[in-house]
Amino acid sequence: MRRILAVYEIDPVSGRTMHTFKAAEQPHEGVAAPDGRTYYAAIPNGPHVVVLDAATFTQKALITSPFFTSSRPNKSASPHGSALTSDGRKLYVGLENADVPGIVVIDTATNRVVKKIDVMLRGGHFLAIQPKTDTLYYPMREDHRVLVIDTKTDAVTAIIPIEGGPVGVGFAPNGEVWIHNDGDGAVHVIDSTTNQVVRTLNGLGKGAGRMAVSADGRWAASTHGGSEDVALIDAVTKTVAATISVGKGPGFPLFSPDGSTLYVMNYGMGDIAVIDTATRRVTARHKAGATPFGGSLLMRR
After folding, report:
1. Has this prediction a pTM greater than 0.70?
2. CATH code for the structural domain at 1-120
3. Any alpha helices (H) in the chain, and if so which ranges?
4. Which residue of 64, 66, 102, 286 shows the fewest CB atoms closer than 10 Å?
5. Which one, of 300, 301, 266, lies nearest residue 284 by Cα?
6. Where are the alpha helices (DSSP H) in 184-231?
């Protein structure tokens, strides 16, 4: 049976698949525009970025660039992690396997790549832009550092050393930046006003995963593919409230807007685990294609 490579829109309450976009290659990470009208999906082996109409999940554009190619056997620089500025005008896409690692900057009005920011460091897998400040954080899991980039000037403004393979990024409303480590299962909390690590939570789980913080700043979540769980963290006290088993291959965690529900995508299970943050229990599982890993909440207006 042939596996369908696709981007899915799923109703988080009912679990119903609302739209499906079938891709020629495996999509990996995506981001929704602030106005809820457009969805961008990075296709590492394309190599390209697909632009979808969020209302119909039909393709509006296909973004390609010579920057997306490399000298690797598959010729792909692996366009991967993606993030939008708060006004939705600039899309940043990390190039994990470029000959010279970097980030491309895309003008969303024209869907054209306007520049590449060379970063030199290796291991850039995921990136995220902090709300309000529009500051980009780009963890480098091989070089054990986090790059900080001002998206207004596209200049690197800080390099934060973090041992243990930093990958996941989450933002708290008080300005904290939470970083998940793939290597040692630790979580680091950065004060974004100084870009200094102010707290480290060690050994929360084993294996690769991602990070999220609820919009109200009450909870944080760190997933772990090795131990097949998610650590639900009290973001105020910086203590683990519960370690919840979610099955094989947990990837991205996402909180509902009110923080009452945590959704964990499980690429090994082919579903999304729905967790009640009050009871700290899995209350439902939504089927989500074959190997769901990354995604975001689409807030239509």
Report:
1. yes
2. 2.130.10.10
3. none
4. 66
5. 266
6. none
- Reading the chain (301 residues) residue by residue, the pLDDT tens digits are 344 467 777 778 887 877 777 877 777 888 999 999 999 999 999 999 999 999 998 999 999 999 999 999 999 999 989 999 999 999 999 998 999 999 999 999 999 999 999 998 887 889 999 999 999 999 999 999 999 999 999 999 999 999 999 999 999 999 999 999 999 999 999 999 999 999 999 989 999 999 999 999 999 999 999 999 999 999 999 999 999 999 998 989 999 999 999 999 998 888 899 999 999 999 999 888 777 777 777 665 5
State the chain's maximal CA–CA distance in angstroms.
Answer: 52
| Residue 128, number of CB atoms within 10 A of its CB | 23
Domains of the chain by residue range: 1-120, 204-301
Backbone angles phi, psi at 118, to 5 degrees: -75, 130
Class of domain 204-301: mainly beta
Q: Are 135 and 126 in contact (CB under 8 A)?
A: no
